[in-house]
Amino acid sequence: MVESEVKNKESFEETLQKLEKSVASLESGEVPLEEALKLFEEGIRLSRDLARKLSDAEKKVKKLTESGSGGFSLEDLDGEEDGD
Fold first, then answer.
1. Packing angle of the helix pair 12-28, 33-60 (nearest 10 deg)
2. How many CA atoms lie within 13 A of 77 on its CB side?
3. How far apart are CA 80 and CA 11, in angstroms?
4. Which of 16, 36, 50, 69 could form an S-S bond across to 31 if both were Cys, CB 3.0 to 4.6 Å?
């Protein structure tokens, strides 16, 4: 299994925690330049991963509304109704 596949299995919270740790290290000002560049590069990758996860979640989020017949219908957040 390649590294990116392993990292994609991390939860949003795990990835966010890693990003926060990298940012804290960079903000401390006590990290040597070479390590700071690696942390910055990793931070960019983590932030892109988080953005992708949020985008994926947004696509999955549907507004659940109760219909008049007691059933439910799913709507996209942008108001498009599912065709069922």
1. 150
2. 6
3. 29
4. 36
Token match 């330049």: residue? 33
Which amino acid is it at 61? V
Tell me the backbone φ, ψ of residue 42, rounded to 5 degrees. -65, -40
What amino acid is encoded at 1 in this protein?
M
The pLDDT, as a whole number, for residue 48 is 97
DSSP state of 1: -
65 DSSP assignment: E
Quote the CA–CA distance of 51 and 45 in Å, as a whole number: 10
* Rg of the chain in Å (alpha carbons): 19
The count of residues in the chain is 84
